[in-house]
Amino acid sequence: MITFRDVSVVYPTGTKGLDGVTLEIPDGQFVVVVGLSGAGKSTLVRAVNGLVPVTSGELEVNGQRVDSASKRELRRLRARVGMIFQSFNLVTRVSVLKNVLMGRLARTSTLATLVGAYGAANREIAFEALERVGIVEKAYVRASQLSGGQQQRVAIARVLAQQPDVVLADEPVASLDPPTANAVMRDLRRVQRELGITTIVNLHFLDLAKAYADRIIGMRAGKVVFDGVAADADDAVFEQIYGRSLTAEDVSTVDVGPIL
Ligand SMILES: Nc1ncnc2c1ncn2[C@@H]1O[C@H](COP(=O)(O)OP(=O)(O)OP(=O)(O)O)[C@@H](O)[C@H]1O
């Protein structure tokens, strides 16, 4: 369970990233956060693993307070909370397998990782993660050789190798073309369903949000202005979240098709 109690984030510049957010996210939910640029979506997601410090209020992840966590507690929390980024954040000059093994870093002794000796158990976990996202045949390929969609799958596998309770994805498909974006969302949703991992994703394509979310959270100026099931989020709701009419740029224009 992730709980926000009246959480605000004020950046050093004085800008309010979050403004009195109160939310409860139960285990295993697939949550999509939508809103215009600057609405506070990234701030919300990054607050969960302490990447962005909370200014006031209480934020708890599976019983661990994030707002008042020590460095050690934050390290422990981040081992259980995986993060996926728009730019994939892979080490592109090394193999796919090495990238995925990096997901084991928080779980492996420093000495073992220094000498690159992750051990058979860790390699097995890494291969299983690659299999789950259908890319195991690329294990020994340099990450730089892969397409954007494949690189994001490797990033998902790296997060899975962490064996997380929670996955945070900050605009994970914003750099991908619409069909690839759809395929990556499908993978994220499938692994979330298979493993029961709580997943929070920022998206700007509303059709993808509607297709994949269990729950949609709409943000505007740091506040939650919509919180409901995807079926209730119609165009009128999105227009209210955005404060303007929808345009062609708000949808991915891909036929999403039936979702599992
Ligand atoms: N490091 C920072 N320093 C100062 N202000 C920031 C910082 N990061 C974000 N902000 C500001 O906080 C507000 C919320 O930003 P945030 O990135 O959370 O929005 P967003 O909805 O994710 O937008 P986008 O879709 O453009 O990423 C914005 O006004 C933004 O300019």
UniProtKB/TrEMBL annotation:
Q: Which InterPro entries match?
A: AAA+_ATPase (IPR003593), ABC_transporter-like_ATP-bd (IPR003439), ABC_transporter-like_CS (IPR017871), ABC_transpr_PhnC (IPR012693), MetN_ABC_transporter-like (IPR050086), P-loop_NTPase (IPR027417)
Does Acetylation appear among the keywords? no
What the entry lists under Gene3D superfamilies is as follows: P-loop containing nucleotide triphosphate hydrolases (3.40.50.300)
Q: For the ABC transporter domain, which residue ranges apply?
A: 2-246
Q: Which residues form the signal peptide?
A: none
Arranged from A to Z, the UniProt key words for this protein are: ATP-binding, Cell membrane, Membrane, Nucleotide-binding, Translocase, Transport
Its Gene Ontology cellular component terms are: membrane
Pfam families per record: ABC_tran
Entries under CDD domains matching the protein: ABC_PhnC_transporter
Q: Which GO terms describe its molecular function?
A: ABC-type phosphonate transporter activity; ATP binding; ATP hydrolysis activity
Is Translocase a UniProt keyword of this protein?
Answer: yes
Q: Which PANTHER family does the record associate with it?
A: AMINO ACID IMPORT ATP-BINDING PROTEIN, PHOSPHONATES IMPORT ATP-BINDING PROTEIN PHNC
| NCBIfam families the UniProt entry points to | ABC_phnC
What is this protein's record name? Phosphonate ABC transporter, ATPase subunit
Q: Which organism is it from?
A: Beutenbergia cavernae (strain ATCC BAA-8 / DSM 12333 / CCUG 43141 / JCM 11478 / NBRC 16432 / NCIMB 13614 / HKI 0122)
Give the source lineage, highest ranks first: Bacteria, Bacillati, Actinomycetota, Actinomycetes, Micrococcales
